[in-house]
Design a protein that fits this description.
Elements lengths: L2 H25 L2 H12 L3 H14 L4 H12 L1
Helix pairs in contact: 2-3, 2-4, 3-4
């Protein structure tokens, strides 16, 4: 009977750790993608180029989209 509180506290702790890790992962570079999209919509190629370089450095999975927006802006 004493094991139940231990199991519950373990589950709660693991859940909190996983939520924290997910939140930290989501913040890594996502603001740069939104910044790149806004720069593309404003046709600000200097800011867009800067955002593309940051996304490539971070190896963000959406970096090719920002690179594509830069290519379109330069046409």
């Amino acid at each position: 009977m004493r094991r139940l509180p231990y199991q519950v506290s373990t589950i709660v702790c693991l859940t909190l750790i996983m939520l924290h890790a997910t939140y930290a992962f989501a913040l890594n570079g996502d603001d740069d993608v939104l910044f790149a999209k806004a720069a593309y919509e404003k046709q600000n190629t200097f800011a867009l180029s800067d955002a593309v370089n940051r996304l490539k450095y971070l190896q963000h999975p959406l970096a090719p989209y920002a690179d594509y927006w830069l290519m379109l802006a330069n046409l």
